[in-house]
Amino acid sequence: MRWLRALLGDRVLLVLLLALPPLAWATTLPLARWPALIDFDTLAALAGLLVLTKAVEQSHALHLAGMRLVRRVPGERSLAVGLVIAAALLSMVLTNDVALFVLLPFTLSLGRLAQLPVARLVVFEALAVNAGSALTPIGNPQNLFLWHRSGVGFGDFMLAMLPVVALACGLLVAFAVCGFRGRALTLLPPAEQPALDRPLMLHALALYAPFLVLMHLHRAPLACALVLGLFAWWRPRLLARMDWGLILVFALMFVDLGLLAGLAPVRAAVAGLGVDQPARLYWIGIGLSQLISNVPAAILLARLSDDWHTLAVAVSVGGFGCVVGSLANLIALRLAGREGRMLLFHLWSLPFLLLLALLVRWLPPG
């Protein structure tokens, strides 16, 4: 079957599956408790967003909006900087995952209209949502977890994270200026212009607001059920075109990383590194994020340190570098399909991590 061949050809999925047997052998966690490792709210949110963004994409609204934009933007560099800034700003209020679901389909549509380095744009948008989302408690999962744990106010959390976010965003804009050319955009030969499916677009856009509200109210399963139910009744073929393998990848990632973080040798090794010292906590948080992603790293290290600010900064910076550092990185490359190149991502993300990590250490203590 086509869907089975697609799953077997998914390298990330295969790696996660191959990692399960040794982790199952090493862990003492009973199999019956493995489902508790999965963040089902996140999976529900991803599923609902997949449907809504696919609906907007299939309505051809992004294609038509892209045509207008490429006729007005003066050049490649201006477009890249604009998309980076937009991604960072959106991630502050819509979370990093939602910002990607909004911008990436639009970016891919732009690539079909003009000669653009789409893969590079995808990489920079992934970096941008990691940078911007670090500002607010609702920007990403690790911030939400650490904010609740810290007991500080919403505004106080933002003020504490502002210097790091400003530095990261400024550095990213500088990278974008260097990474994209100033040449004028060249429109590709026009193909047959698709007609706007207005009902599909309006239905999808109308569902975005209640979907996001329900997510912020921690009712992601209800939001997902609402979206899936309506489209299953109205446009069932749209659901058949979804990349449901992405949901499976994330479910396995939660299990694999949860088992790894729960291993006694891992916990003992981290505990023995002296995380009571802010400087060590900072570098350990960055390094651990490269191995098990920044959300599990935040949860594990929060058991060993009450220094929420240093930890929040560390795992935010740790979202850059290796692709596993942040789930948003994997979402970006997955949504981009063939345009998202793993090697290209690391060619930009690793130098960015090294430079940002050193610069952040020069900031005054928060």
TrEMBL record:
<feature type="transmembrane region" description="Helical">
    <location>
        <begin position="281"/>
        <end position="302"/>
    </location>
</feature>
<feature type="domain" description="Citrate transporter-like">
    <location>
        <begin position="14"/>
        <end position="303"/>
    </location>
</feature>
<protein>
    <submittedName>
        <fullName>SLC13 family permease</fullName>
    </submittedName>
</protein>
<dbReference type="InterPro" id="IPR004680">
    <property type="entry name" value="Cit_transptr-like_dom"/>
</dbReference>
<keyword id="KW-0472">Membrane</keyword>
<feature type="transmembrane region" description="Helical">
    <location>
        <begin position="246"/>
        <end position="269"/>
    </location>
</feature>
<dbReference type="GO" id="GO:0055085">
    <property type="term" value="P:transmembrane transport"/>
</dbReference>
<dbReference type="GO" id="GO:0016020">
    <property type="term" value="C:membrane"/>
</dbReference>
<feature type="transmembrane region" description="Helical">
    <location>
        <begin position="308"/>
        <end position="331"/>
    </location>
</feature>
<feature type="transmembrane region" description="Helical">
    <location>
        <begin position="78"/>
        <end position="104"/>
    </location>
</feature>
<keyword id="KW-0812">Transmembrane</keyword>
<feature type="transmembrane region" description="Helical">
    <location>
        <begin position="201"/>
        <end position="234"/>
    </location>
</feature>
<dbReference type="Pfam" id="PF03600">
    <property type="entry name" value="CitMHS"/>
</dbReference>
<keyword id="KW-0813">Transport</keyword>
<keyword id="KW-1133">Transmembrane helix</keyword>
<dbReference type="InterPro" id="IPR051475">
    <property type="entry name" value="Diverse_Ion_Transporter"/>
</dbReference>
<feature type="transmembrane region" description="Helical">
    <location>
        <begin position="343"/>
        <end position="363"/>
    </location>
</feature>
<feature type="transmembrane region" description="Helical">
    <location>
        <begin position="157"/>
        <end position="180"/>
    </location>
</feature>
